[in-house]
Design a protein that fits this description.
Blueprint (H helix, E strand, L loop, with lengths): L2 H4 L4 E6 L4 E6 L5 E9 L5 H5 L7 E5 L3 E2 L18 E3 L2 E2 L12 H7 L3 E4 L3 H11 L2 E6 L5 H10 L9 H4 L5 E3 L7 E7 L4 H8 L3 E7 L4 H6 L4 E4 L10 H10 L5 E4 L1 H9 L3 E18 L4 E14 L22 H6 L4 E4 L3 E9 L5 E6 L4 E4 L14 H10 L50
Parallel strand pairs: 3-4, 4-6, 5-7, 6-8, 11-12, 11-13, 13-14, 14-20
Antiparallel strand pairs: 1-2, 1-9, 2-8, 3-9, 10-12, 15-16, 15-18, 17-18, 18-19, 19-20
Helix pairs in contact: 9-10
């Protein structure tokens, strides 16, 4: 905290519903804000984080101590508006040094009316959230009485009580043209889609018809797209049943791909359950195992909810290395070298393809009998590492009707025989076949049970 900069600026108070309070200084707009407090572990990319629509309704804590050093730049915004409720940092830079910068981060926050606090022990706050889970909180420059502000936080609504997706979705449909000659036409459900995702789609020669979150499936099918994409977005997926119903009608009729909230929507459309994670995954350094390639990807993530894999159906032992029981910690499948397959009552076989190596939760799945797949994290990497950008190429291969959609040899979608692929005792990927969810070449790992 720069004490020279703090002189003359308003004091601020951060209060949590468990009674914890932190004092500091205002680093943004004056006033007060209420929301769910979460932490993000990224070391850079604060502008992309703040402009991610998925943070609607949330107060974001950045764990990296120094924030704002390189200012802000128009090109880095992921949305035209800032939808987060507030920002918490340890040490805010008010005088950035960067040839691209057009303003400082505090200037941006004030101009967009985002309440922020600096001078907070973000390590202590992060440990509090890890121990107690994401919780309701408030930042105020007006009510500096800890007892009063805590009481008001406890009376504020939780994040699951409101559907935030209409707040961040587009109002009308529009077309985004491919960055080269268009080879495929897709429809993208905008549930709060980041600019980086849209750029990743158009960069692969997709012409993208962006539609509001509640667009009926019949309108999408009438347009005859080559595929349908369900985007990221904020809040509780249980609030977006209009999108879930659309996904249920579209599955099996056109290739489908979903990211983050899109993954949760596809889960619900398959009759599965969603759970709220204790403190979510927010950051650019989450390790994820690709069960098909045995490679570990460092990923960018931002979600509080996730799929309950066992809710999608019972394990098929003969296609899951002989194992018949679900695992609470899905890292067990990575250690076994197996990508398990369940029997879903609606859509046939669904395979677990990606697992979070920090907590053993599901991060990706592939439908084997219809053309659909999804991931829980952000392969567009805005901000974050680019280990997983292949997902967008996988979507192209899915629309091409490739028989190698799982990184294995096969005759057609849903007709693979047991002689190939992730079956039985070994995880094997032929040398000459790139998988829809994998990379080129053979996995170096073949583990027997």
């Amino acid at each position: 905290m720069n004490l020279l900069v703090s002189e003359g600026r308003p004091r601020a108070l951060l209060a949590l519903e468990d009674g914890t309070t932190f004092t500091g200084w205002s680093a943004g707009a004056a006033g007060e804000t209420f929301g769910e407090v979460v932490f993000n572990t990224s070391m850079t990319g604060y502008q992309e984080i703040l402009s991610d629509p998925s943070y609607a309704g949330q107060i974001v804590t950045l764990t990296y101590p120094q924030v704002g050093n390189y200012g802000v730049c128009e090109a880095d915004f992921q949305a035209s508006r800032l939808h987060l409720r507030g920002l918490v940092v340890r040490d805010m830079c008010h005088t950035p040094s960067n040839w691209r910068a057009t303003a400082s981060l505090p200037e941006l926050l004030r101009s967009r009316e985002v309440v922020a606090i600096e001078g907070v022990d973000t390590r202590a706050l992060t440990l509090r959230i890890r121990g107690g889970g994401a919780m309701r909180a408030a930042i105020s420059t007006e009510d500096l009485d800890p007892t009063s502000l805590v009481a008001r936080v406890r009376q504020s609504p939780g994040i699951s009580g409101h559907n935030y997706v209409p707040d961040v979705s587009c109002d009308t449909a529009r077309t985004e043209h491919a960055q080269a000659t268009a080879t495929r036409r897709i429809v993208a459900y905008d549930c709060g889609m980041k600019k980086g995702i849209l750029d990743a789609l158009t960069a692969r020669a997709f012409e993208v018809r962006v539609v509001p979150w509640d667009t009926p499936a019949r309108e999408v099918l009438a347009a005859g797209p080559d595929g349908v994409f369900f985007s990221n977005g904020p809040g509780d997926p249980g609030q977006v049943w209009a999108t879930v119903e659309a996904a249920r009608e579209l599955l099996g009729k056109t290739p489908v791909f979903g990211i983050c909230l899109g993954n949760q929507i596809i889960t619900l459309a398959a009759g599965g359950r969603i759970e709220k994670l204790p403190f979510g995954h927010h950051g650019g350094n989450e390790p994820v195992a690709n069960l098909l390639t045995r490679r570990v990807e460092i990923t960018a993530q931002n979600h509080n909810f996730g799929t309950v894999f066992e809710s999608l159906g019972p394990i098929i032992p003969e296609e899951s290395g002989g194992f018949a029981a679900h695992e609470q910690d899905l890292r067990a499948w990575f250690h076994r070298g197996i990508a398990p397959i369940v029997r879903n009552p609606l859509w046939g076989r669904i395979q677990l393809t990606h697992v979070n190596l920090n907590d053993g939760t599901p991060e990706g799945m592939q439908f084997l009998d219809i053309p659909a797949f999804s991931c829980q994290y952000h392969p567009e990497a805005k901000p974050g590492p680019s280990d997983s950008t292949y997902f967008f190429d996988s979507f192209m291969r899915l629309m091409e009707g490739r028989s190698d959609i799982l990184g294995v040899r096969g005759d057609a979608l849903g007709t693979r025989d047991s002689a190939h692929g992730v079956r039985g005792d070994a995880l094997s990927i032929p040398d000459d076949v790139p998988g829809i969810l994998g990379h080129e070449g053979r996995s170096s790992h073949a583990q027997t049970r």
